[in-house]
Amino acid sequence: MTESSLLIRPFQTEDEDALVALWKMCELTVPWNNPHKDIARKLQVQPELFLVGILDSNLIATVMGGYDGHRGWINFLAVHPDFRENGYGQEIMNSVETKIREMGCPKINLQIRTGNNKMAFFYQKLGFTNDHVVSMGKRLEADHS
């Protein structure tokens, strides 16, 4: 359980700078994706599934969820390094999972970078299993920072 109460709420535009800083600190940003564009696009599609965790007025956690009618998706889960191992990651994941389940979603998928064993272990503790599939992508437009 958590040491202190985490307020979980939908992302608000005034959260953007702190959120991007958190993503960078947690190494979730890559040169070929502009995080500000990722945020703008998410605010157009199911913004209620874009959650932040606030502790003592500080944004310390985030997760981006989605549901396409077939599968739910989890992206950009991050917890500030100073606040890890306190249950905040599980807490914000439970919140987004509940919201996606309430939409009628039968299964949630997520992707982690190859070799990120720490996150693989974290997700396994939450009940996720390796589906033994190959993830592929195709860029439809340039999205540089």
Can you give a write-up of this model?
The chain is of the alpha+beta class and 145 residues long. It has one domain (7-125): 3-Layer(aba) Sandwich (Aminopeptidase). It is built from four helices and five strands. The protein has helices spanning 16-25, 35-42, 88-102, 117-125, and strands at 7-10, 50-55, 58-67, 72-79, 108-110. A five-stranded mixed sheet has the order 1-2-3-4-5. A hairpin with a 4-residue loop joins strand 3 and strand 4 (72-79). The longest helix has 15 residues, at 88-102. It is globular. It starts with 6 loop residues before the first strand and ends in a 20-residue tail after the last helix.
Q: How many strands?
A: 5
* Overall residue-averaged pLDDT value: 92
Spans of 5+ residues with little confidence (pLDDT < 50)? none
Report helical residue fraction: 25-40%
- Give the CATH H-level superfamily: Gcn5-related N-acetyltransferase (GNAT)
The coarse silhouette is globular
Question: Which percent range describes the beta-strand content?
Answer: 15-25%
Q: TL;DR?
A:
The chain has four helices and five strands, in the order βααβββαβα. It is α+β, with helices and mostly antiparallel strands.
